[in-house]
Write a structure and sequence with these properties.
With 262 residues, the protein is an alpha/beta fold. It has helices at residues 47-54, 78-82, 102-111, 124-136, 152-163, 182-198, 233-236, 239-246, and strands at 9-18, 21-31, 37-40, 67-70, 85-89, 170-174, 201-206, 218-223, 226-232, 252-255, 258-261.
């Protein structure tokens, strides 16, 4: 009898408390390796806390029925886990205010630091991999430019390259289009499509429908710390479902595989 493949993540009855509030309330979720998924919901719905639970930046309340399995394992060295999961977050951009070049920012991903420091050793293999990633993301021209002098869109490409240095099995995008102008949003979505087509699993957290690139077929709705919808995007991305999720009347259009709401 053929065994079922091990899921990328398998969460069972996960509850996370932050202060007096339940940021996640009895969440159960499974995502397969190679499956592209978008997690959608209003601000404060628990999306970012869910990502922190997956990356083990925060932990669920200890209960008998609770488990968090990643790649089939419950216990991880967090450093080892983060080599399998690349993270692209808008929050990381603030750490690159000093004179760090694009190449240095990407190289620092190998060393889990912000930029490079005198005590750290950069190998020729690291530099070669960095060059390959900058070329993949059409960002070779940013190698010597200071990150603080880049546009938000250029910085986001550098952060994507940084997240890819260990050739992770999945890439997590946490609200990736925040603070980007229209041109930079389009650039980012083109990069996401390229990565999805390359075989890396994409896990997207957003409240912008237009971030859900055509390669993402499954959508998860979150509200008030709970999963309130999970299924194919053609079934969930409707006026009725989105109006209920966001609590306001929504209008919806589709074009070239993208959904747009206002």
């Amino acid at each position: 009898m053929e065994q079922s493949p091990v899921p990328l993540l398998d969460l069972r009855h996960v509850t996370v408390q932050r202060g007096s509030r339940l940021a996640l309330d009895d969440v159960t979720l499974s995502v397969a390796v190679g499956e592209h998924v978008a997690i959608l919901g209003p601000n404060g719905s628990g999306k970012s806390t869910l990502i922190k639970a997956i990356t083990q930046e925060c932990y669920p309340l200890p209960r008998e029925e609770t488990s968090v399995r990643l790649f089939g394992r419950e216990r991880w060295n967090v450093t080892e886990l983060r080599q399998l999961m690349g993270i692209v977050s808008n929050d990381m951009q603030a750490f690159y205010s000093r004179g760090i070049t694009g190449e240095e920012a990407v190289l620092s991903g190998f060393l889990a630091s912000v930029g490079l420091w005198p005590h750290q050793t950069v190998t020729p293999e690291m530099r070669e991999r960095t060059g390959q990633l900058l070329a993949l993301l059409e960002a070779t021209h940013l190698a010597e430019r200071k990150v603080r002098d880049m546009s938000s869109g250029e910085t986001r490409r550098i952060l994507v390259a940084r997240a890819l240095v260990h050739d992770p099995r999945t890439l997590i995008f946490d609200e990736p289009s925040n603070s980007l102008d229209v041109f930079a949003q389009e650039e980012l979505r083109r990069v996401m499509r390229k990565l999805a087509q390359s075989g890396i699993t994409i896990l997207l957290v957003t409240h912008h429908l237009a971030d859900i690139v055509p390669e993402i077929e499954r959508v998860i709705f979150m509200r008030e710390g709970r999963i309130v919808g999970d299924g194919p995007k053609r079934q969930l991305l409707t006026v009725e479902c989105l109006t209920q999720l966001f609590g306001v009347p929504v209008e919806l259009t589709t074009r070239d595989g993208y959904y747009h709401a206002w």
